[in-house]
Write the structure tokens for this entry.
Amino acid sequence: MKTALIIPAAGSGVRLGAGRHKALVEIGGQALVRLALEPFRRIEHIVEAIVVAPQGAMPEIQEALKGVDWPTCALRVVAGGETRQDSVRNGIETIDADVSLVCVHDAARPLVTESTVLRVLAAAAEGGAATAASRPADSLRVDTADGATEPLDRDKAWLVETPQAFRYEVIRKAHAHAQATRFTATDDATLAEQCAGAKVTVVESDALNLKITKPEDLEVVRGIIEAVQG
Ligand code: C5P
């Protein structure tokens, strides 16, 4: 199934405190945005990849992606918006290939494996919407209305990650409806479910699929990538 890939990379990275946009922070000489594309490059049916860049850093993102070897895919950079949801919508609106599936993957998760991506794509092709996720290792508690907390069964909980994938018409409808009704969510699977009535299939990630948010996350990911690269 022909697939478009959207890489939201337009976050400011304030919490990372690296003094530059998060997607441009380098590990082993490569920017995070470039590392995040790596597991997708071998997937032949991805025919279009749209990197959503910070408004003020389009040239720097272009530069970071220079020379990416992906002859079967049209790779381009578009401007992001104020929120992640705005950025993903901007990316979706520029899809111009005749695709059946759309995959969304955050530039902040460079450790995702090709096999997780393939399983998420297959689940979305079958059911309409799918997300990568992991089980929490810690015990969980949630806030209650009276200001206290109560335990949550961690065996029933998922930590929702990217990649997420959708049939094209599902994600188009979800974002259009969300924009019209001012519905907001922190991930696209929630939009697909709440705004397009999709049933979301959860696919367990097959390896640590850490999201880089804080400086210590960056150091963990750096250590893993450098260990693999030898
Ligand atoms: O800020 P957070 O880490 O949750 O962002 C997740 C992903 O969404 C990151 O890859 C970030 O670059 C992207 N993002 C975006 N546009 C925004 C905010 C975040 O593309 N306005």
Observations:
- DSSP finds seven helices and eleven strands in the chain.
- Residues 8-11, 22-23, 52, 80-84, 87, 106-108, 213 surround cytidine-5'-monophosphate (CB under 6 Å).
- Helices lie at 32-37, 58-64, 84-93, 114-127, 168-181, 188-196, 215-229.
